[in-house]
Amino acid sequence: MGLYKSALRPLMFRMDPESAHDLAFKALEKGVVSTKTFESPLLEQELFAVKFANPLGLGAGFDKNARAVPHWHKLGFGSVEVGTVTWHAQPGNPKPRLFRLPEDQGLINRMGFNNDGAEKVASRLWGLKPAIPIGINLGKSKITPLEEAANDYQLSFRALKDFGAYFVVNVSSPNTPGLRSLQERGPLSEIFSAIRSVDYTKPLFVKVAPDLEFTALDEVIDVAKEHRLTGIIATNTTISRGGVSAKAPHRDEAGGLSGRPLCHMSNKVLKHLYRACGQDMILIGVGGIFTGQDLYDKIAFGAHLCQVYTGWIYGGPQMAPRCLEELENLMERNGIKALSDLRGAAA
Fold it and tell me: Rounded to two decimals, what is the model's pTM?
């Protein structure tokens, strides 16, 4: 982390956040960014018939259009989730729409599902043989009325179904008007029915908001079980500003908050899901991972897999292998022989 923290990150952080992202992504897309990866049999696992070399993946939102899929394994990730992808290509919300909170190690974004559309992303994935499992995150097109959401998700899934190791229904972003209302039992069930009518075999997840009450989460669990979903991702960004310094620049910008301030909220949701779901539901923990201890805690709270986004932006290219090595050291120090033995230990 030394060079990145001392030289590259200060340089990048002087730029507009989205411009810095675009610049970094061009290098990532060309495959010129890599790091020494960390491999360990202790961190390997097979879940829903998919092999994961390690439990830390890159979360949705960074590689929205699947442009760098052949290269993410070079950064040490065990998986990557592309998207959010919508049926209709869309530019997203007006700029500026991404804001840093450096003192709090957070980000606020209101990107608005900017992406090339499902058919274009599918053409980009055609013929690729990625070295790590690829998840595909699906959202609702902004121009699609809420009452037609199920058909919108179905069209995207139909176009992309052959290219993902798993699929995610994103109904929890705060940046598409009305989207979070689709977490309610009726609309959510309709979306899953529409997707399952195309293919019942694909691993399917739902991504939930950290702002939901436990009673609402329990309804999501009921729908997930009814439609035999593979699992739940906890969590998306929050509309809360808890944990953000009162005088932080951009604190009051509209959008979803991610990073360190999200950690406690997302962990509370994760623990509740672990207790309420039973052993068959795969849980992916997202929100506030910066260190190996954070990763260890997520798994101890019930996660099978974890994802990072903001922590990677702050931590740099070596962040994933560093966290994985720290995770293994913690497991060995505590006499834990497998990820399955750690899972749920603190829930």
Answer: 0.96
